[in-house]
Write a structure and sequence with these properties.
With 171 residues, the protein is α/β, with parallel strands linked by helices. Strand 2 and strand 3 form a beta hairpin. The longest helix has 14 residues.
């Protein structure tokens, strides 16, 4: 079992989206979508937003480089990767994935079937060892880990869709 370490959730956020521009600023309840994700995540662990506009020297689609920059600023041992379009993310689910990561001692990712409950947990060392092949790997951060490393994919059934990608998802 991995020892308890400094955990940091990095929530990627950008305002440009081809399907629903500025979706992270949509109001859900009394707050913006991004704030809902941040607030819920902070119930499980320390969390920061990785806004594309805060790293203007980094191309917006190079999310991997943004993760490297945020991790260098905060020096975590363990990183939880989340996206800002999952306003229903459950803090207990984040904690469960963190505990699974500690037990297994290798990166943990949730299955794509649970869209909106996406949680990926890996070490900073894992992040530094990502060698992107192309722009897809730079935009999707853990595609390299999924393809090249001994990643445990949590089998979650049945499929759900709780992320916000279109105007219909907001309704």
């Amino acid at each position: 079992m991995k020892p308890v370490s400094k955990v940091l959730a990095i929530i990627q956020a950008r305002h440009h989206s081809t399907r629903l521009p500025n979706k992270v600023d949509e109001i859900i309840g009394d707050h913006t979508m991004w704030y809902q994700v941040l607030r819920r995540t902070q119930l499980a662990c320390e969390a920061v937003m990785a806004w594309s506009c805060a790293y203007q020297e980094i191309p917006e689609d190079d999310v991997l480089q943004r993760y490297w920059a945020v991790a260098a600023e905060h020096q975590p041992d363990t990183i939880v990767r989340l996206t800002s379009d999952c306003p229903l993310i459950e803090p207990a689910h984040i904690t469960w994935c963190l505990n699974l990561y500690r037990q297994l001692g290798r990166p943990v990712v949730t299955a794509p079937a649970w869209d909106g409950m996406d949680v990926e947990v890996f070490s900073w060392k894992d992040l530094l060892n990502i060698h992107p092949r192309d722009n897809y790997d730079r935009e999707h951060v853990t595609s390299y880990l999924r393809r090249e490393c001994n990643v445990y994919e949590v089998p979650l059934e049945p499929p759900i869709h709780w992320s916000v990608n279109t105007k219909d998802d907001l309704n």
